[in-house]
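Progress report, Aim 2. The chain analyzed during this reporting quarter is listed below.
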Amino acid sequence: MAESHTPKRKTDGSRGRLVLCNLGRLGDTILRNSILDSAFRTYGAVDYICGPRNAELVRNDSRLNMVTVFDKSLADWTRLVKTALRHRYESYIELKDHYSLTSALMARLFRSQVKTGCNSDYWRPFDRDARGVCLPSQTQTETMRAIGELAALEAGDYKPSLMVSADSTNWFRRGHNWERPYIFLNISATGRDRMWPAERWARYVQACGLEEQFILINGVPKDRQIVEELCGKLPGAVAFQPRQFMDVAAAINDARLVLTVDTGVVHACSALNKPLVALFCEHETRGKYRPLSDQQLVIAARGGVANMDAEEAIAQTLRQTSFGWNAFRDFFQGANHRQKAGKVGF
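Predicted structure tokens for the chain:
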């Protein structure tokens, strides 16, 4: 475990100290951090325990008093015990919406007047059991609001939270100084059932009349071949090579539109309120991870995204854009996009 301290803001010690625990992935963290506004309204100091997968996001939030990164090794557990003994908190909140043995063990270590989180039927380390307020029909932000209310946090603005680092913003703008607007296209996702091959992406982009737009194509290193193949099929496409996820967030923040499969990029768009077209597996379209951007078009596969052909995605786009999606059309007109006769266009 590496313990690091973010730059400290002025805190009001009379309002007490809160610790939040969340060892989740990047996308989960963007949504779960919607609780932060209420947390800062309620407590003078807010500490955060995260994992190595989401440390990049959490460490970048200078509002947090102290950030502790925990990686579940024996040495980490030893250091976490020492950290728990050094501090006493008015409140401890676990942000997961389900029971976890690791979360329960960590909660037992910390001294706190009130602990909020999901118990099991057999072990109840949390004073306020969040199982009753974590409903499968809710978005993650709605669940965080329910957990915040259960933990007696003040009312706040529960929106996905993502602080794009100045380092990544400066890096992106120095290396990608384009005067013309661009589309950000992300092809990578966790799980091959959420992936789409290059030829389907190319067919979809062409059918939407976007092939001549400047397109920045992103993929994780293992999907670099797909990125290069897609760049070869689209004349306006350029491969993006970020150093880290925060660089991806910086590129999304400057983009005019994002095309992506269901992954953390969707939640970054929700936090930054970016216009979005997202390919979702059928069972995820109405779940807790659905996109929250004001302008969005969700294309639902019958089963996994990998099983959906390009013509079905194009047909869904036609159906949805014919029912009030003028915002997308206006958006592209503002970006000097000229629709071609016989093509979909937004």
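The radius of gyration is 22 Å. The first helix runs from residue 26 to 32. These observations will guide the mutagenesis work planned for the next reporting period.
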